Please model this.
Amino acid sequence: MNIKNNLILALDVGSESEAIDICEKVKESIDTIKIGYPLALAEGLEIIKKLKDKFGFKVICDFKVADIDATNEKICEETFKAGADAIICHGFVGPDSVQACLDVANKYEKELFLLTEMSHPGAKKFLQPAADEIAKMGIKMGITNYVAPATRLDRLQDIRNIVGEDAYIISPGVGKQGGDGKKTLEISNAIIVGRSIYEAENPKEACENLLK
Ligand code: O7E
Model:
């Protein structure tokens, strides 16, 4: 995925009007947004096409898909039918569940991101011990896009070492969660930033500062 300024906006706001307001303010710096449950549950999947049509953005749907294969297939179908350019799935559910997501992404000629280790402190308890194996599974399955944390650069580097330089890694955790954008981008291909932009008094300036 080609992402302008290697910066993805996590648009975790609660309404279409807030989403449009933020997008208007940052549209010069950003061409890719991540929509997750907060906005999708508030406004429905139609919000994907609305924002794509209005701003020409690419939309990554962060539904952290984590069910059995048959249900994952249905979730991905609905998401790509609604216009998503990519979807994020969890890896801990295992290869059959992830394969179901990959098959639907391939059918729509869209992209799948595999979530390895999460960025929050709690991820150390269950997910971190499994994350390397999740990344290895992804490589075995031919997955080229990954999510790995900006909050633990040593772990981000470990995951980079497993998936290789050709893989595309996006990293959440910059700003409010304590991660450093510049250092993260020495390992990752793009950063995902939410609150530091949409909660800022001046989101446009917040974006520009991040890009500096
Ligand atoms: O901390 P913020 O406000 O900059 O937002 C970070 C966003 O990334 C937010 O949408 C959160 O749900 C998401 N995220 C993490 O913070 N940590 C993770 O490990 C994974 C994600 C995520 O986006 O998952 C799929 C990429």
